[in-house]
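Quick review question:
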């Protein structure tokens, strides 16, 4: 079975403001996830700085490791990896090393001989030919080696960079748990691009092959029971990940939290057992909620609130301004028939 290969990148234009600093200035956590540009409503800018060590996720291969017998392990291999050929700083975290027998086994797979999550492991191996694979998030590199009873030093070039997405609402950072980030690779034959990461975590660094990517960030509403639901605040951006660099991007959402109330008069107590529907002026349903004063996070814009209580229906229009949370009162007063004042 052939080994996993790096994600192919398309030809989408980079955007935003870029700043590069030395690789040693990138502190990273110990593991990567399987996931913003500073935007006004629909525009973006990115900052890029050099990386040292994005954490990595495990390579998914249906193989079982088998340690070589001690009497056959006469050689040693010392492994290291670089983000790019022109970047002498080795990767210090997040690597997953796997060494396979070059020959296919009876099941058609390459037998997994050794593996390690150390940044620069030294592993005993029997004499023979092997395939070394290094994985860093979605990025990876493969090399064939020959062991002949001596110490072998091998360095793999990942040709990878890091991507870190954060979010802001106004001037306030968004809780990473309230963001859902999807990462796509543009494809010439696919106008919607290819999804490569469905649920990247905000504020964590993901290793990616060098190339162009399309990022979609969706703001979430968090429920009291720990559940989350997507809002209509969705921001997208195009950016480029460069080998040996960290693309550190912040996506700026424009939304606010609205609390709906059905009242008999302005400022009065909210009526219980009320169901609400929030619509766009064009009639698209944004949210449906039940309660005396339910809340919802809604993207900036104009909306219609429909309230239903005791078999009667009431409505009000309201406007959402970014980062301005407020109450929306719907008066329990039926609209007069057409033609009446």
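Suggested answer, residue by residue:
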């Amino acid at each position: 079975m052939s080994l996993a290969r790096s994600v192919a990148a398309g030809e989408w234009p980079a955007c935003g403001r870029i700043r590069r600093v030395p690789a040693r200035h990138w502190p990273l956590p110990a593991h990567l996830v399987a996931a913003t540009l500073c935007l006004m409503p629909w525009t973006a800018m990115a900052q890029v700085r050099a990386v040292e060590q994005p954490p990595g996720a495990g390579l998914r291969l249906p193989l079982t490791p088998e340690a070589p017998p001690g009497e056959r392990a006469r050689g040693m291999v010392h492994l290291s990896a670089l983000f790019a050929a022109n970047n002498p700083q080795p990767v210090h975290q997040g690597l997953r090393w796997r060494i396979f027998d070059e020959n296919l086994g009876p099941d058609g797979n390459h037998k997994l001989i050794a593996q390690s999550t150390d940044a620069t492991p030294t592993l005993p191996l029997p004499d023979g030919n092997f395939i070394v694979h290094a994985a860093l998030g979605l990025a990876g590199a493969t090399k064939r080696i020959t062991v002949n009873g001596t110490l072998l030093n091998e360095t793999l070039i990942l040709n990878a960079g890091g991507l870190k997405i954060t979010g802001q609402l106004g001037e306030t950072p968004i809780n990473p748990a309230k963001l859902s980030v999807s990462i796509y690779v543009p494809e010439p034959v696919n106008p919607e691009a290819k999804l490569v990461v469905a649920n990247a975590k905000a504020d964590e660094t993901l290793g990616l092959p060098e190339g162009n990517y399309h990022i979609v960030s969706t703001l979430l509403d968090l429920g009291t029971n720990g559940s989350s639901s997507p809002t209509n605040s969705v921001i997208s951006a195009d950016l480029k990940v460069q080998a040996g660099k960290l693309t550190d991007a912040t996506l700026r959402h424009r939304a606010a939290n609205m609390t709906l109330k059905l009242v008999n008069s302005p400022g009065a107590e909210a009526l219980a057992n009320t169901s609400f529907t929030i619509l766009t002026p064009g009639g698209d349903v944004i949210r449906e909620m039940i309660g005396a004063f339910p809340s919802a996070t809604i993207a900036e814009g104009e909306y219609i609130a429909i309230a239903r209580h005791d078999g009667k229906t009431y409505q009000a229009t309201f406007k959402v301004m970014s980062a301005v949370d407020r109450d929306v009162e719907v008066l329990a007063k039926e609209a007069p028939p057409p033609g009446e004042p």
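Why it works: The chain has no helices and 23 strands. Residues 70-157 form a domain with the Immunoglobulin-like fold (CATH 2.60.40.1120).
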